[in-house]
Automatic annotation (TrEMBL), chain A:
Protein name: NADH-quinone oxidoreductase
Xref: SUPFAM superfamilies: Nqo5-like (SSF143243)
Signal peptide: none
EC numbers for this chain: 7.1.1.-
Job description of the protein: NDH-1 shuttles electrons from NADH, via FMN and iron-sulfur (Fe-S) centers, to quinones in the respiratory chain.
Pfam families registered for this protein in UniProt: Complex1_30kDa (PF00329)
Keywords of this entry: NAD, Quinone, Translocase, Transport
Organism, as annotated: Niastella yeongjuensis
Length: 156, 390
């Protein structure tokens, strides 16, 4: 499907989704309260987004407009139609919480643990939410912009 | 083979080597928890698997990561668009060229750079040589995991020739840095074409030798057929890519689906096997060796003349926005996601590494298998741990 067709499909279920068509792929921003039902619709309905190939977060606190903003970014591809869609969900940086999608796409389980580990985003109803690469007693979330590495190893 | 694994007291919440096993210890009667790694010859790096066993049957495999986590993504946030590429050779060190290539593609996408045809062909040649070298090392190591020692030496013998070519071209044998935004760092060595042709001639016979030695070996087939079955739907759901997904019948070769450089102009086949077991994944990689040879044969005499690098500014600045590039490494789809705020360094960078997603399917694939089969399953996942931990 082309970006226009994907957009039409999304508009029918999420009339107030915010679209961005400047990039290579269509981007849509959905509200956090609608995220879980929207994710289920993406996977099972018209768009058939069965392949979640990238899941990450972005901390916007180093920019002028995003002091309390943290965004989750999901990249989807459909192996049936071969189209790609980027979905973004805005979170409150001071208390980031979002529903897990690991029950819809199994790959999300590891990726969400990584985001929890490095950004401190809490995934609700995640089956096994623990730190993935850092030790359990590690303090702070390294990929946040205000993280200061005590021995200055990763900041040049 | 399992000499260093330790049998733990099930009641104990603390591992004898230190560390908490709270989440790993099963409470059921007769369950046994053993550690494989972080220092184990079959994990090929510092991967730590906590395995729950019922008798000899695997109940659960839980990977513990982070022994080689360097926070490369954070590091890249303070490096310029020219500098950060060099760090990525230290992720999947067996696909160093291809990692660099993926990063260069992403920066070029942001700058909207046109790459000279000569550079494009050189890049594809280097990628395919890297793929052969990587699959060779996997083949030797996989056979060694299953108890065959000879293939390891065979594989390293041929891989050495590629390493020599790499050394002559870009000065390094591992962690190569050759791809830069705009093309390649310098032109190929005058001997390059001749040496690659010599290698291809020698290598064609060697693949037959590999088939005789391992592929058609009945002992090897018995150990890998029907082991670690992954269905196509699960492969997609777990985000598997590369030979792991193609062994389950999923079409996912980025070189075919989203061609970059000159991949749409060369003839090669995407290898698909449908069995989904360890032997299918093995076959995909062995057959890919021949396809890589095929690509190199088509290009080696047809390297166009001209520049090897496009003209770029000394300091690169990407416009504000987001850029994503996907590339097929020896292990699967490698993604580079750059978020730019218009400065000289990336605001946020994310590497989607193929090994990370492939590893997440390990638990699912090995449940119900015998402990001895775990090595046959892990061997065909072709894990490179620095790529997973980043």
């Amino acid at each position: 499907m082309t970006n226009g067709e994907i957009k039409q499909h999304i508009v029918t279920v999420r009339p107030n989704g915010v679209f961005d068509e400047t990039g290579e792929w269509l981007q849509v921003q959905v509200d956090i309260s609608e995220w879980k039902t929207f994710a289920q619709w993406l996977r099972n309905d018209a768009l058939q987004m069965d392949f979640l190939f990238c899941l990450t977060g972005i901390d916007w606190s180093a920019t002028a407009t995003g002091k309390t903003l943290l965004t989750m970014v999901y990249h989807f591809t459909s192996t049936v139609f071969r189209h790609t869609l980027v979905v973004k969900v805005k979170l409150d940086r001071n208390n980031p919480e979002i529903e897990t999608v690991s029950d819809i796409w199994r790959t999300a389980e590891f990726h969400e643990r990584e985001v929890f580990d490095l950004f401190g985003v809490k995934f609700l109803h995640h089956p096994d939410l623990r730190r993935l690469v850092l030790t359990d007693d590690f303090e702070g979330y390294p990929l946040r912009k205000d993280f200061e590495d005590p021995i200055n190893m990763i900041k040049l | 083979m399992y000499r260093e694994t330790k049998i733990l007291n099930v009641d104990s919440k603390v591992s004898p080597i230190g560390g908490d096993l709270e989440g790993a210890v099963g409470a059921d009667e007769g369950e046994l928890v053993i550690n494989v790694g972080p220092q184990h010859p079959a994990t090929h790096g510092v991967l730590h698997l906590v395995i729950t066993l019922q008798g000899e049957t695997i109940q659960k495999v839980e990977p513990h990561l982070g022994y080689i986590h360097r926070s490369i993504e954070k590091m890249c946030e303070s490096l310029s668009y020219r500098q950060f590429i060099y760090v990525t050779s230290r992720m999947d060190y067996l696909s160093a060229h291809i990692n660099n290539h993926g990063c260069a593609l992403c920066v070029e996408k942001g700058l909207q750079l046109e790459i000279p045809p000569r550079a494009q062909v050189i890049r594809v040649l280097m990628d395919e040589l890297t793929r052969i070298a990587s699959h060779e090392l996997w083949w030797g190591a996989m056979a060694m995991d299953l108890g065959a020692f000879t293939p390891f030496f065979y594989a390293f013998r041929e891989r050495e020739t590629i390493n020599d070519i790499m050394e002559e071209t870009c000065g390094a044998r591992l962690t190569m840095n050759y791809m830069v935004p705009g093309g390649v760092m310098y032109d190929i060595h005058p001997n390059f074409q001749k040496r690659v042709k010599d290698f291809i001639q020698l290598f064609n016979n060697k693949i037959d030798e590999y088939d005789d030695l391992v592929t058609n070996n009945i002992i090897f087939q018995n150990r890998t057929k029907g082991v670690g079955i992954l269905s196509a739907a699960d492969a997609i759901s777990y985000g598997c890519t590369g030979p792991v997904a193609r062994g389950s019948g999923v079409t996912c070769d980025i070189r075919k689906l989203y061609p970059y450089e000159v991949y749409d102009k060369v003839a090669f086949d995407e290898i698909i096997e449908t069995a989904g077991d360890s032997y299918a994944r093995y076959l995909v990689r062995i057959k890919e060796l021949r396809q890589s040879v095929r690509i190199i044969e088509q290009l080696i005499d047809n390297i166009p003349d001209g520049d090897f690098q496009a003209k770029t500014k000394a300091v690169l600045k990407l416009p504000r926005g987001e850029f994503y590039s996907r590339i097929e490494t020896a292990r699967g789809e490698f993604g580079v996601y750059i978020v730019s705020e218009g400065g000289t360094t990336p605001y946020r960078i994310k590497f989607r590494s193929p090994g990370f997603s492939n590893l997440s399917a390990l638990d699912h694939m090995s449940r119900g298998s015998k402990i001895g089969d775990l090595m046959a399953i892990m061997g065909t996942l072709d894990l490179v741990i620095p790529d997973i931990d980043r």
